Amino acid sequence: MQPNASLFGQALVFAILVLFTWKFIWPPLIAALEERAKRIADGLSAADKAKNDLELVEKRIAEELRKAKTQAAEIIAQAEKRAAQIVDEAKDEGRAAGEREKAAAQAEIEQQAHHAREELRQQVSLLAIAGAEKILRKEIDSSRHADLLASLKSEL
Amino acid sequence: MSAEQHAPSATEYIQHHLINLSSPQTTGGAYNFWTFHLDTFWVALILGFVFVALFGLVARRVSVDKPTKFQLFIELIVELVDNHVKEIFHGKSKLIAPLALTVFVWIVLMNAMDFLPVDLLPLLGQKVGLHYLRVVPTADINQGLAMSLSVIILSILLGIQAKGAGGFIKEFFTAPFHAEGMGMKIVLMPVNAAMQCIEYGSRGLSLALRLVGNMFAGELVFMLIALLPWWGQLIPGSAWAIFHILIVVLQAYIFMMLTIVYCSLAVEEH
What is the number of structural domains in chain A? Predict the structure, then answer.
């Protein structure tokens, strides 16, 4: 178990192996490991980012949906209001038209009633006069009492 | 080789297994520094090529989007090492992580040679004329020391790079014991220098011995189990192999962690 000149041989082999490993083996292996670690880290961060983005987008979608819903509700409310307004207007118009027609009819009725009354009055006065004439023919001279007759006719 | 004449005794068997294929071949006689362990060298080199080939292939065809299962397995190891380095080492050097990866995988592969049946490669070696063969490079003190000393020298260089030569030398003489007065500072200088030497020395030695001791002991236990009669080997052999899986990975892991720690200690201010 004594050391001898083999020391130098073994040290030489050792040195050559270390140098070879240092120059040719270690760098590509460690570069590959680091590259992979970097890729994994990048992938994880990208996934995180995508998740965040997704969340943002989902939030925006919810926001837009909410907006759209409120807008739709507003539009519906407006439409309902407008419809009610239209119905009211139509009702009002209808009522006004009815009233107008009613008034016109009433006016016509009144006019006709008036007319009829006037005619009736004329006929009654004519009849009265005729009656009176028949009565008075016997005792009253129509020419003498014309004034009286005319005033009577207008009063009737 | 004595095995051809008579069956080796237990001691002979183990002693034979503990002799490296070296140049010039020694058989455990007189100590000669200028021997070279061919088995340690070649097995370590081949396993180094296996490591470089596997990881290099994956590194060349690395795909970010469609990794193969094997790439994911390699990435698992790379990421483990990278995380530890990022946690412990706060210096600028880009060398520590590849160093730690090399240390970990290479040691795991070398330790795993223990899982081959203890006699398999030596027997095959005998067929091609290799009379001695130890197949676990990390059970050889040279392998452990070569790596630990390289790490310690590298940590010193990193310290010089981080603090400058002046800063490093200043720290060498003023830490771990700090003094206020000039006189005390001078008195503490040799103490500090001695402490620093002991610190670096013990780091290197403990780093190497921990690994080599564990693997040597593991190998020895496998040899002892191999000495049992054939019907008695299965259960202790399996049990020790399963337990050894833990040791193989754990020792490599400890070596890697301590490598990172020592390098980070070197660049940090005291």
Answer: 1
Per-residue pLDDT, B14: 84
Q: Which of B22, B93, B192, B214 is catalytic?
A: B214
In Å, what is the CA distance from A124 to each residue of A64, A109, A132, A136, A150?
Answer: 86, 21, 11, 17, 14
pLDDT in tens, A74-93: 999 999 999 999 999 999 99
For the question of residue B210 being annotated catalytic, the response is yes
pLDDT for position B22:
81
User: Considering Cα of A125, then A129, then A130, then A132, what sign does the dihedral take?
Assistant: positive
Interface probe with A: pick from B15, B39, B55, B142, most Cβ of A within 10 Å: B142
Contact of B248 with B112, CB cutoff 8 Å: yes
Query: In chain B, which residues have their Cβ closer than 8 Å to the Cβ of A13?
Result: 41, 44-45, 48
Structure tokens at B84: 């530890």
| Whole-angstrom Cα Rg for chain B | 22
Burial zone of B63 (CB within 10 Å; 0-12 exposed, 13-18 middle, 19+ buried): exposed
Of B35, B40, B56, the CB nearest to A25: B56
B214-245 confidence digits (pLDDT tens): 999 999 999 999 888 888 888 999 999 999 99
Q: Where are the domains of chain B?
A: 2-267
* DSSP H or E run through A65: helix A26-139
Q: Kindly determine whether residue B32 and residue A9, on different chains, have CB atoms separated by under 8 Å.
A: no
Using alpha carbons, select from B137, B139, B134 the residue that is nearest to residue B15.
Answer: B134
Question: Rounded to whole angstroms, how far apart are CA atoms B17 and B6?
Answer: 16
Chain A positions touching B35 (Cβ under 8 A) are 4-6
Domain hosting residue A115, numbered range: 8-155
Residue type (1 letter), A60: R
| pLDDT at residue B15, as a whole number | 82
Q: Do B34 and A3 touch (CB under 8 A)?
A: no
What pLDDT, on a 0 to 100 scale, did the predictor assign at position A141? Answer: 63
How does pLDDT run across A111-146, given as a tens digit for each residue? Answer: 888 888 888 888 888 888 788 777 776 766 666 667
Token code pair at residue A145: 């009492």
In a domain, A87, yes or no: yes
Q: Do A5 and B35 touch (CB under 8 A)?
A: yes
- Cβ distance A25 to B55 less than 8 Å, yes or no, reads yes
